[in-house]
């Protein structure tokens, strides 16, 4: 009895729910009919305001286009036929447009290809391996050795993009490039910093038989070159910096220098720097959506760059696209976000030194009785500190990637640096695929070309030849 009563109650609730839904449905249906009647009365009837206003113009247009009705079958009413034809035309046009866009975009999407290993790898004292590449003359015939750490999203394949072997031989240059830890074919470093970066460079030089060398720093790769000047200065003959980057949060920059730097960058790049400084783990997501997505894209898209006129023209050239794609493929070979995150963090973190530390200064015994006694008994003399070798900087004044304000800052705190400014050049246009530019750089660093060492010259100390720059008679800054 009780069970039947409960079943009756449940059925009653169910019927109530159905009735409620039905009532709502009828209400909505009637509302729709009311809206339809309003539309018909105001827009469709002969005496409606809209019809009265459009009746005259539409009659004129209809009379002029009436000859199109001859194209219709005799049993088709034009009033019904033409709206159908027009609707089908719109659908076909939309479908054709979608197919055309889809078809044209497919060839533009290039997949990242991972190539077979090709680098020479040498073991390091901590058990890691570093991959490197050599161009130019052999070690036993080199007048000058040049080691180049690469920039962000690059590899040992970059070096000096487009440099001719003939030019390297003409100046007797041995160019050594290598993959940073975790890039290309180099093993990752568990605790990477700029000090370890300088030591890696030194280990590489020792392994390939170079006692003293020039260091070349381009773009963000310059921070590794700056580190070499700080931590292994006795092994560096001189420095060539092209659009060198410094920490954009450097506290010793003036407000004007910092403002002129940040205003050149797009919002996304500013966001990347902020994340690298505050929330570096979030960078992994953005990297996987861009250059670690398995697809190619232009350099300004992947790195969120704003470019000047010459840079925009250069990146559209097939030779640059081919170089960029291959360099990226080598850079992302390991498919790991960690080395890129480490590199981004290094750019905006405390480097452990400042540009002012590289300035040549005279250090004498301190004041007080104890330093005076040491000075008297040991006959200690004042010593020079900082980097004593030549530093050359090439800066494009239309560079919006590493703005000229960064070089202005370096020149202010590092007065011994010689700055070469180029008014119309950008970030890439002076350094990439520019034979004349490469010759200018080598001539400034090494003087007149003398070719490789001959057998009679190989007995001389190559270190002595590499220590002196023939174009550093004056420490004044000059503009090309």
Automatic annotation (TrEMBL):
**Molecular functions per Gene Ontology:** hydrolase activity
AB hydrolase-1 domain location: 152-431
**Listed SUPFAM superfamilies:** alpha/beta-Hydrolases
Gene3D superfamilies, per the entry? alpha/beta hydrolase
Which is one Pfam family of this protein?
Abhydrolase_1
Polar residues composition bias: residue spans: 448-462
Under the heading InterPro entries, the entry gives: AB_hydrolase_1 (IPR000073), AB_hydrolase_fold (IPR029058)
Q: Residues annotated as region Disordered? A: 448-480
Name of the protein in its database record: AB hydrolase-1 domain-containing protein
Lineage from the top down? Eukaryota, Viridiplantae, Streptophyta, Embryophyta, Tracheophyta
């Amino acid at each position: 009895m009780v069970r039947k009563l409960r079943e009756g109650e449940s059925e009653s609730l169910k019927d109530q729910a159905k009735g409620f839904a039905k009532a709502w449905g009828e209400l909505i249906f009637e509302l729709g009919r009311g809206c339809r009647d309003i539309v018909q009365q105001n827009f469709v009837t002969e005496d409606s305001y809209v019809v009265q206003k459009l009746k005259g113009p539409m009659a004129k247009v209809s009379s002029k286009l009436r000859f199109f009705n001859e194209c219709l079958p005799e049993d088709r009413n034009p009033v019904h036929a033409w709206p159908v034809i027009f609707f089908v035309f719109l659908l076909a046009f939309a479908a054709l447009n979608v197919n055309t866009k889809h078809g044209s975009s497919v060839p533009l999407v290039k997949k990242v290809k991972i190539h077979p290993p090709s680098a020479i790898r040498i073991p390091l004292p901590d058990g890691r391996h570093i991959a490197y590449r050599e161009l130019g003359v052999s070690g036993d015939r080199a007048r000058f050795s040049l080691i180049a750490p690469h920039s962000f999203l690059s590899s040992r394949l970059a070096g000096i993009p487009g440099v001719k072997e003939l030019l390297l031989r003409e100046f007797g240059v041995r160019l050594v490039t290598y993959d940073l830890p975790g890039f290309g074919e180099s093993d990752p470093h568990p605790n990477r910093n700029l000090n370890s970066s300088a030591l890696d460079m030194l280990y590489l030089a020792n392994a390939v038989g170079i006692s003293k060398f020039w260091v070349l720093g381009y773009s963000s790769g310059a921070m590794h070159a700056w580190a070499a000047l700080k931590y292994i200065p006795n092994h560096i003959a001189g420095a060539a910096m092209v659009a060198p980057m410094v920490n954009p949060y450097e506290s010793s920059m003036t407000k004007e220098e910092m403002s002129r730097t940040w205003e050149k960058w797009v919002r996304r790049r500013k966001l990347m720097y902020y994340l690298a400084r505050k929330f570096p783990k979030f960078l992994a997501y953005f990297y996987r959506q861009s250059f670690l997505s398995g697809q190619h894209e232009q350099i300004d898209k992947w790195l969120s760059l704003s470019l000047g006129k010459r840079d925009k023209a250069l990146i559209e050239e097939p030779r640059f696209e081919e170089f960029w794609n291959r360099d990226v493929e080598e850079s992302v070979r390991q498919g790991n976000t960690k080395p890129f995150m480490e590199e981004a963090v290094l750019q905006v973190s405390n480097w452990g030194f400042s540009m002012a530390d590289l300035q040549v200064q005279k250090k004498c015994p301190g004041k007080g009785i104890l330093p005076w006694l040491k000075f008297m008994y040991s006959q200690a003399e004042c010593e020079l500190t900082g980097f004593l070798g030549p530093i050359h900087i090439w800066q494009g004044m239309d560079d919006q990637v590493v703005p000229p304000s960064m070089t202005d800052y370096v020149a202010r705190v590092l007065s011994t640096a010689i700055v070469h400014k180029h008014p119309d050049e950008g970030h890439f246009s002076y350094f990439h695929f520019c034979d004349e530019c490469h010759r200018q750089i080598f001539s400034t660093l090494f003087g007149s070309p003398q070719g490789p060492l001959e057998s009679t010259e190989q007995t001389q100390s190559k270190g002595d030849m590499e220590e002196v720059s023939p174009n550093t008679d004056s420490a004044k800054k000059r503009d090309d």
